[in-house]
Design brief:
394 residues, alpha/beta, TIM Barrel, 2 domains, 9 helices, 28% strand, globular, binds zinc ion
């Protein structure tokens, strides 16, 4: 039997155009070949069969996390291929099949090491694991007033020359930069990013709503971890939060773990932004998938207790959220439908990153990045480019 041909049968298929109640997906050499209702299935010889009769299993597109630092003991800032491999192998268990390797504010040498290692890893991405779609540079161009867990001693003003050097070292794989627009003189840095196809995102920022509006005119299009480490909403100064809610051009990241934003705040974000302008992210650090205990983030000690990660002074330091739980939370917190959480968990990110020709929905010709969810919406099986990267033990 040709192992590269797979047939998944008797599942609910959440495809780009419709939801098929009792459907099938044919996969051939890593790509979705055909989808349809089981009744119209022909030509099954040569396919390895995965069948779920009478089980109410959903097939959704692989999730895309544009903001994640680490998982299962590893962190992008470790600057090693082994750390990236650990992350790529761990993430399919939460349904993530694509992500942006996210750096932190650190010394220039550490950032450069992480950039070069990630670019090298991306050149020959192994099968049966999540795929790195690029790099999210979080800091060092942020505001010390809103530093959160970004170590202050390495924070710098937005610097085009330094970024040029870094993006060269990263072989032009930096896709998204989190910066504080109020520190970007004449918005020159934002303009430079946008002219070079890099998404400019406001985060760790003390900007006013007016400053965000000005930055939008120069190409700012994204908001990093809404509510966290930014000027909050006030009725006489709507802040970054007010701008994020109001400005339709902004794609907004949300950590839907109930810790970085309460269930009410998550619902407000969904109600105001709608399903097309919100992205579920984890902003996870290395303790994800591991037990409570002592860990490290950006050279600082982090304690994880009841899955909440904090610095010694109590500042929240990344999350331990698994992305499929973010989807489940949005169904609970905001009353989202499955179609809506697919949109905010995968489709929007693929479109924003310009990889929607391959990712972000289940459709013929696209990568077979597919997650099977059971009745409780837990991950049963994850395919990365047509190969089983995770299978839940019975
Ligand atoms: Zn952050
Ligand atoms: Zn982060």
């Amino acid at each position: 039997m040709d192992q590269s041909k797979l047939l998944i049968r008797n599942i609910q298929v959440y495809s780009a155009s419709q939801t098929i109640k009792q459907g099938y997906i044919k996969i051939n050499h890593g790509k979705v070949e055909e989808i349809g209702p089981v009744g119209s299935l022909t030509q099954t010889e040569g396919y390895q069969l995965i069948d779920f009769p009478n089980q109410n299993i959903k097939a959704i597109p692989g999730l895309i996390d544009v903001h994640i630092h680490g998982a299962n003991g590893a962190d992008v800032m470790d600057g090693t291929a082994a750390a990236l491999e650990t992350m790529c192998r761990a993430l399919p268990q939460e349904g993530t099949t694509t992500f942006l390797a996210t750096t932190m504010t650190q010394s220039e040498e550490s950032i450069e090491q992480a950039l070069q290692t990630t670019a090298a890893y991306m050149k020959a991405q192994p099968q049966r694991q999540a795929e790195i779609a690029g790099i999210h540079l979080e800091g060092p161009f942020v505001n010390p007033k809103r530093k959160g867990a970004q170590p202050e001693k390495y924070i710098q003003k937005p610097n085009i020359e330094l970024f040029q050097k870094w993006n060269q070292l990263a072989e032009h794989q930096i896709k998204l930069v989190t910066l504080a627009p109020e520190l970007d003189d004449d918005h020159a840095f934002t303009k430079y990013l946008v002219e070079h196809g890099v998404i400019a995102s406001a985060g760790h920022t003390d900007a006013t709503a007016t400053e965000i509006s000005e930055a939008i005119e120069h190409g700012l299009s994204h908001i990093t971890h809404l509510y966290n480490q930014m000027r909050g909403f006030h009725h006489r100064e709507p802040g970054v939060v007010g701008a994020a809610w109001l400005q339709d051009s902004l794609m907004v990241e949300l950590i839907a773990d109930g810790i970085h934003s309460t269930p009410e705040a998550a619902k407000i974000a969904f109600d105001l932004k709608g399903k097309h302008r919100l992205l579920l992210i984890t902003d996870a650090m290395r303790a994800k998938c591991l037990q409570d205990g002592e860990y490290e983030l950006g050279g600082q000690k982090v304690s994880v207790k009841d899955q909440k990660a904090t610095l010694e002074d109590g500042t929240i330091a990344g999350s331990t959220l698994q992305l499929h739980n973010g989807l489940k939370n949005m169904i609970e917190f905001a009353g989202c439908t499955m179609e809506e959480v697919i949109q905010i968990g995968s489709t929007n990110a693929a479109a924003e990153l310009g990889i929607d020709d391959r990712k972000g929905s289940i459709a013929a010709g696209k990568d077979a990045d597919i997650v099977l969810l059971n009745e409780e919406n837990n991950v049963l099986l994850t395919l990365c480019r047509g190969e089983v990267a995770y299978e839940r033990k019975a």
